[in-house]
Amino acid sequence: MAFLEEDTSKVYSIVKKVSVQHYVSTYNIYKKIAEEINVDLFFCDYLMNYPCFDLAWKLGKPAVGSSTDHSYLPNPPYIADPIYGCHVNMENESFYNRFKCAIIVPLKKAWSARDTTKGINTQRALVGVDPHWDFFGRISTDTPLHQEIGPVLPDVFPGLTPDLDSFLSAHPRTLYFALGTNVFIPPQSVVTFLKSFLELINQDVIDGVIWSTVKTDVEDSFQLANYSSHDYPHIFISNFSPQFAILSHENTKIFLSHGGAASAHESMYTATPMLIIPIMGDQPRNAEKLELAGIALRISKTNLLVDDIVEKVKRLLNDESFKKNSERLQFLSRINSKRKFRAADLIEITMNTVKYVGVEDDHGRLRINNDNLLRDWITPDSRMGFIRGNYLDVYAFAIFLVFLLFGGFVYTLWK
């Protein structure tokens, strides 16, 4: 976990620096496009896309944000981030761990964000945007305006190629291995995976492997391990594969993945148990959630062992609970995937609300106050403040009355 925290911290540090360095150029690009096509709605990626939300606020246009990473969105106190040494579910943790993850970790994250916020505000001044000291930027993450949608899956997917279809038909116990389009693993790790696959095939645990590679040169790894890919017809190597079609095939029994959000959704939708090697970003969190749900097991990128991979593949195939949990989540994911239509409706509501709350500027264009947009969705408790919104003052007074009456009763008896 310490390695993951250090590794991810470096990635986030780079992302923060880039977000500051490219703020002005990105803002100007968005501004030029907005002027050319007279933008009515901004659809922004939520993760550190400050120029998008700032420009929407500056122009008085509605903005909708989207994200697959929940770490920057509001969560109940029992949900934490494993990247920072916590667990996604703190239900059974000690008071010390819950205190650390609910109080100490957020304070550390806020402290580490101060330089980025200061840098962004410096860049904002260069393009005439007022400073904003919330690290999350000009977007509301209040629960009424933050709604979970998905998994969002397209209605049409690429089908199997003839070669893949023939391979899957001939191998009724296939393991599918893919680490996305941006992940690179060192040659020695590739060798470890290769040896694991050969061991699983030799033990007749699986009878085929589809290995989808983008960043990894598997042929070099075969040579490093003194193997030839031509000698192993049960391993199908492809630079790109139609992932959903492969997972949908009845002969695909295991999905070895990095645990990205899209891969996790497709695995749940097709009821395919997962063996996950989380690399960075939201992947450790996704892996822990899937393991808690009972449809996945994790392996470590820093301690990758053949025996560990073989043992966990056997568990995924032989333990009936993984199959039942996969089918349970398949039902839920297929029901929830219909919420993508609700997402489209929410975008339509946001855009059309401008007609009723917008004010025309000198050029006849509607402008709005983004702070008041969708005010009908904002519940009164958010305006009442923490104490009044949670009725803490009322409960405190009620407790005071109880103690007062009880004290008076005891005093009367004593007298």
UniProtKB/TrEMBL annotation:
GO function term, MF aspect, one: UDP-glycosyltransferase activity
Gene3D superfamilies attached to this UniProt entry: Glycogen Phosphorylase B
Pfam families in UniProt: UDPGT (PF00201)
Segments traversing the membrane: 394-414
Keywords (A to Z) from UniProt: Glycosyltransferase, Membrane, Transferase, Transmembrane, Transmembrane helix
InterPro entries for this protein: UDP-glycosyltransferase (IPR050271), UDP_glucos_trans (IPR002213)
PANTHER family, per database record: EG:EG0003.4 PROTEIN-RELATED, FI06409P-RELATED
Protein name: 7110_t:CDS:1
Biological source species: Cetraspora pellucida
Phylogenetic classification of the source organism: Eukaryota, Fungi, Fungi incertae sedis, Mucoromycota, Glomeromycotina
